[in-house]
Specification:
NDM-1-like, 2 domains, alpha/beta, Metallo-B-lactamas, 10 helices, 321 residues, six-stranded mixed β-sheet, hydrolase activity
Length: 321
């Protein structure tokens, strides 16, 4: 399926050997709006070949815009490769995510390696892979705040909506007349699937209140069709099911933490094992990925006084009240 809404194209891509990624493009005559840039290799591997087949020689005369939905290497890493090919590209992202897109060391320290203080730091190999996939990051031309509208005539009027939770500056795109949403990673269900359809990772959200609000925001729009970056296209009841599942996952993680025996303190790693084994959705190799949503829940519980934190031997221990 390529063109469900007039001027909207969806390009199937892949990250590594088995992680699905879908790139979206809006085209209106001589204006092309790319939604996200993939990882460093995605433009040459998937995006440009697709666009050349479609637009032929016209590519060079088109005005190319890039909206980055959020600061993750699989969404902005291809920006440098796009600029190489399209030197007049205008790149846009939410102001809250601009510093991470601009500075690879910073996004690694503040996002990808944020659990180092909990004894769950990344391996040097994983850090090297993230740096490579980031394409070095780079300058964003226009910082957005959400609420802007991109007028693409026949390809629609697309409103940018601030949808934080997965990152502080996540943006989705909304076309009111078509009731069509391109939501990137704004909501993540029970987590991510590989290309064979197996659930292989918990949902990476980092701010419970923001993520919950974002799911409500999407629900209130009442979309007929939703395009995401890592899931199949959703329509009608499947959208409601997915949003309910996203909220339900939060409830289950929250509940699991609250029902743990209160006898002792837990490290973040131990909490990943406890919740991963109790819930049973993800393979054991993916449980460390629970550190992302669990940290978000622990912070929320800490603020309400439901968890106490002590640093023992340089590592945080969480005590439930
Ligand atoms: Zn993603």
């Amino acid at each position: 399926m390529n063109q469900a809404v007039n001027g909207l194209y969806r390009i199937p891509c892949r990250i590594g050997s088995d992680k699905p990624l879908y790139q979206h493009v809006l085209a209106n005559g001589d204006t092309v709006l790319w939604i996200d840039a993939g990882i460093a290799s995605t433009p040459e591997q998937d995006m440009f070949p697709y666009w050349h087949r479609l637009a032929g020689e016209a590519v060079a005369e088109q005005t190319h815009l890039l909206v980055i939905t959020h600061a993750d290497v699989d969404h902005y890493g291809g920006m440098a490769a796009m600029r190489n090919k399209l030197p007049f590209l205008t790149a846009m992202a939410h102001i809250a995510d601009v510093p991470w897109i601009a500075d690879t060391e910073r996004i690694i320290a503040e996002r990808y390696n944020m659990h180092a203080a909990d004894g769950m730091g990344l391996t040097p190999e994983r850090i090297a892979q993230l740096k490579e996939r980031s394409g070095g990051g780079g300058r964003v031309d226009t910082a957005l705040s959400g609420g802007e509208t991109l007028q693409l005539d026949e390809a629609g009027q697309w409103r940018l909506i601030h949808t934080p939770g997965h990152t502080p500056g996540h943006l989705m795109l909304w076309e009111e007349n078509a009731a069509c949403a391109v939501i990137g990673d704004a909501a993540l269900g029970r987590g991510l699937f590989n290309t064979t359809g197996k659930l292989v990772a918990p949902p990476p959200y980092y701010d419970c209140a923001a993520y919950r609000q974002t799911i409500e925001t999407i629900r209130e729009l009442q979309p007929d069709i939703v395009y995401t970056s890592h899931f199949p296209v959703m329509e009608g009841a499947a959208i409601r099911r997915f949003l309910n599942e996203s909220l339900d996952m939060m409830r289950q993680l929250d509940q699991t933490l609250r029902l743990l025996p209160k006898c002792c303190g837990y490290s973040l790693g131990e909490l990943c094992l406890e919740t991963g084994s109790r819930l049973g959705y993800w393979p054991e190799t993916a449980w460390a990925g629970l550190s992302d949503p669990l940290s978000a829940h622990l912070q929320a519980m800490f603020r309400e006084g439901a968890v106490r934190v002590e640093v023992e031997n340089g590592r945080r221990q969480y005590y439930f009240q």
